[in-house]
Amino acid sequence: MRTVELADLDRSRMPTHVAVVMDGNGRWAQRRGLPRTDGHAAGEEALMDTIWGALDAGIRWLTVYAFSTENWKRPVDEVRYLMNFNERLLLTRRDELNERDVKLQFIGRRDWRVPKRILRRIDETLELTRDNRSMTVSMAFNYGGRAEIIDAVKELVAAGVPADKVNEKRVREHLYDPSMPDPELMVRTSGEHRTSNFLMWQLAYSELVFTDVLWPDFRRGDLYAAIGEYQRRDRRFGGLTDSDVTGE
Ligand code: IPE
Ligand code: IPE
Ligand code: MG
């Protein structure tokens, strides 16, 4: 996929919410003979350029997959690196994000595996950016789509909601961020064609765009290319589009 300029997109058909699986850091590093962790470090520039690019495009929600509930299976050194890396990213970037009116949100499990120190940083960041309105950047951290649905079901059961009152609206109200609209578009880098447990509920009708670009090489032009691809898709939601009905 070639990169695209913002001016080449249809501004009347921009997605409200874009979700990104930031994948391929390890391979990016390995191709350069570097340790995998250097690939994660190089992903920071990709993330910041994607955030600013989304902001310039008027995207209201950007959700990025930073650490999955399955990523604990990695070697302890890599897990430790990722924890420290995400903490440092928060500390060094939250002020500039705050200055540009970006709200930071976190979705994921706050379980015993996440160091207390990081939970504190997350809470401070939520508080700092809570009233910002230009865009919400949601970090999926210790996030799993199945875990999110299980957690929602647990809350419904604990609240004593009877079985015949369980419906889509109620489940949605118990997701990690009930105010988050479903993404119209999910982009995954590094040529892998799967969701890896990302936003299982919310992606039900999203357009999926896959690119071979490795995450550390991803820039706003790649985001715009994915949005361009999205704008060429015909979304049906199980129904028919006008042209199906008229035969044109
Ligand atoms: C994505 O890059 C970052 C995380 C999963 C945290 P990877 O580390 O998965 O890189 P590859 O897929 O091994 O190249
Ligand atoms: C998905 O990437 C998780 C994140 C990007 C944080 P993975 O690299 O963990 O996914 P798999 O193992 O290739 O499915
Ligand atoms: Mg990967």
- Parts with pLDDT < 50 across at least 5 consecutive residues: none
Could you name the CATH class? Answer: Alpha Beta
Structural class: alpha/beta
Assign the CATH superfamily. Decaprenyl diphosphate synthase-like
Kindly provide the radius of gyration, computed on alpha-carbon positions and rounded to a whole number of angstroms: 19 Å
Bound molecules: 3-methylbut-3-enyl trihydrogen diphosphate, magnesium ion
CATH topology (fold) name = Undecaprenyl pyrophosphate synthetase
Coarse shape: globular
Main pleated sheet:
6 strands, parallel
Distance between the termini: 29 Å
Mean pLDDT, all residues = 97
Number of domains: 1
What is the level-2 CATH architecture name?
3-Layer(aba) Sandwich
Question: Secondary-structure element order, as H and E?
Answer: EHHEHEHEHHEEHH
DSSP strand (E) fraction? 5-15%
* Helicity range: 40-55%
Assembly annotation: single chain
Number of helices, where a helix is a run of at least 4 consecutive DSSP H or I residues? 8
Placed side by side, the strands forming the largest sheet appear as 3-4-2-1-5-6
Strand tally: 6
